[in-house]
Amino acid sequence: MTKQRGYGTGHIEQRGPETWLVQVELPRGADGRRSRQRLTVHGSKRDAERAVRDVLHQRDHGMTVTPNQLLVGEWLPAWLERRMHEGRKPIADSTSDRYRRVIATLPRSFAALRLQEVRPMHLTALYADESLTADARRKLHVVLRQAFMLAFRQELLSRNVMDAVSPPLVQKNAEQRVLNESELKALVAAAIGTAHQVPIKLTVATGLREGELLALTWSDVDLERGTLSVRRGARYLNGRGMQFTEPKTAHARRVLELSASTVRLLHQHRAAQAALRIRRAAVWEDEGLVFPSAIGTPWIPRNFYRGYRAILTASAIEHPETVSWHTLRHSAATWWLRAGADLHTVSRRLGHASAAFTLDTYGHLLVGMQRQAAEAADALIG
Q1: Which residues make Cβ contacts (< 8 Å) with residue 202, sequence separation at least 6?
Q2: In the predicted model, is pLDDT for residue 372 greater than 70?
Q3: Are 191 and 311 in contact (CB under 8 A)?
């Protein structure tokens, strides 16, 4: 048993093989009496000593919060609330909603830790937790890094434990799946007669993102000129419903040229939608959307995607779980490049922030094209 008594140091008492009782004398209250702060620490003696230093730091800096009572699972929502309303640039609603989903993935065992008890070994174990996806671990690291930094600045911690750990290793994503011609035909055949038939075909023709597709209005489509303008995106926020947002980058706001067959497809779709609007006049809420719900209102993404998964299952495509809506966009870009479209055109059509990002994603498709260019130069050099 180790004891270090006195107002200046506090003391540590061993209660079990790896259990320690930490006690620190606090300043006198208004009534002139002293009080003690007690903390049970599980771990080594060094962990207990570190806890003493943390508590002493809080005491000597006049902290009114009792740090040993603050759990990680309590601090993260409090941090997010501050992040939403404070600072030079409060985060957007969509970002706060994403952070809430990330916090919800935190294992209960980690959330139940006291803020001051978190050590590098806890974070290492979190990053090795196989019940979490690699993407979830990466996002948790980002959130924890910001939350612990604020706790340190607010003097809830005497040191930031995140400084002692490296981000979780994230393996480079495997090459994304590209649908071949027979798979696409099977998918389109399964979609015939459903509300997803035209969205699937238009996405393959234009490479639109799902959010861009669901936010598209008829005022964005010029069938006379054969163009489609991407001006916004759509996403669903818990408690707020559907939200339409401005593109994040200048390149995401773009005008796409449409083929003659795509223009005919949209003409037919508009006519069919007009007939449906007449039949459902009693319940139809016209918001001018190209792809609304069955009653004209915005199509909720989760409902849209649920219908798409059903079509994938019906198509009998192998491993349908690997075919997301983004697979259609990725497949379209791949086909364009294989057909000879230049990288800059593909990048602008997809709305990428830069051609460098497009090259990083699709550069492997250009290997054969480089060989063709090298052979074409043979005629010039004899």
Answers
A1: 208, 213, 262, 265, 266
A2: no
A3: yes
Q: How far apart are CA 301 and CA 8, in angstroms?
A: 59
122-159 pLDDT, tens digit per residue, is: 999 998 888 888 888 889 999 999 999 988 887 778 78
CB 243 within 8 A of CB 236: yes
DSSP for 300-319 reads -HHHHHHHHHHHHHHHT-SS
Whether 192 has a pLDDT exceeding 80, the answer reads yes
The single residue listed with the structure tokens 């792809």 is 291
Side-chain-side CA neighbours of residue 135 (13 Å):
3
Is 43's pLDDT higher than 70? yes
Domain ranges for the chain: 11-69, 75-164, 181-327
> What's the burial of 160, exposed, middle or buried (CB within 10 Å: 0-12/13-18/19+)?
middle
| Dihedral (Cα; 325, 327, 333, 336), 10-degree rounding | -100
What is the chain's percent helix, strand, coil content, to nearest 5?
50, 10, 35
Q: Name the token pair of 357.
A: 């990002």
Lowest mean pLDDT among 62-66, 112-116, 247-251, 262-266: 62-66
What topology does CATH give the domain 75-164? Answer: DNA polymerase; domain 1 (1.10.150)
Task: Report DSSP state, residue 62.
Answer: T
Pick the CATH number of 181-327 from 1.10.443.10, 3.40.50.300, 3.20.20.70, 3.40.50.2000: 1.10.443.10
